[in-house]
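Check these lines:
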Amino acid sequence: MSQEAKSISAATRLYGVVGRPIAHSLSPLLHNYWMRDHDIDAGYVALPMRDVPHHLVIDRLRAAADLGFGGLNITAPFKEAALAAADKADPAAQAIGAANVLDFRDETIFAANTDANGFIAALDEGAPNWRKTTPCAVLLGAGGAAMAVAFALAQAGVERILIVNRSFDRAARLAAATPRAEAIFWDHRTAAIAQADLLINALSGPDAVAAALAHGLPPGDGQKIAMDLTYRPLETVFLAAARAQNWVCVDGLGMLVHQAAAAFQIWFGLRPDAKAGRRRALAHLATAA
C-alpha cells in the first residue's frame, strides 16, 4: 500500500495524543504510518494540554468527541482523568484506575488501557525468559504508567512486587490495589533495588532517575532485567547504568509500539504491523539524534 503523504479533506477523521509535555511523542509518527499503510482516511496529531484543574481536563477530553475526533491516546499526566471522562471502560482500565485510550463512537466515550498488555508484549519480546527468572520485580514510580505495569506484573503472577516512589502515600495506594505488592520508602530504594530480578523505571525526568540510582546498581550477571518506560533517548541513563552492570536491558520503545498497535486495533478493527512500526520509529530516532 502507498506510503505517500495523504491529503486531508473534510471527511478525514482526526485522532490524537494528549499529554504534557507532548512534543517528544512518537505516537503521531506511528499512527500516521499505519493509517497510510492501511489506506485509512484519518490523521493523527499531538495535542498539548495546559496545566488546568482535573475537572477541566475531563471536560476538554469529552469535548474532543463533540469536535469530531474519532479517538485519543492519553499520556502523562492525564490517564486518570481519561478514565473519569469515559462512559464505559474495559476491565483493564477499571482495574488499573487509568486509561490511555479513548474511543468516540455512537455518542459514547469508551476508555481502554493498552499499556498493561503493551508492557508485557515488550518484555516478552526483549527478555523472553523473564517469567521464569522473576520472583521479585521492583517498580520505580507510581504514576499512570506505573499503575498499568503493577497490574500487568500481578496478572502475570510475579510473586513479589516492590513499589518505590518519592511520594510514599502514592506508592502505598498503588501497592494496596496490587496483589502481592509492597510499598517501599524512597530512602530504602537501594535495598529494594538489590532484591530485583526485574527492575522497571517508570519515573519521570532524569533528575528522579539519577536520585533513584544514587548508589548505583548491583551486578546483573546477565540474568537480571532492567526495563525503562522512557524511549527518548532510547539508551537512557537508567539503561546505560544497567548495561554497565551486565543487566539484560529492554528499552521503552517496545511498550510504546505495542500499546499503540492495540489502540489502533480498537479504533479501526485492524492490527497494524508492530515490527514495521518499530523500524519506522528507530529510523526516525536515528535521524533526529
About this structure: The chain has a mean pLDDT of 95.
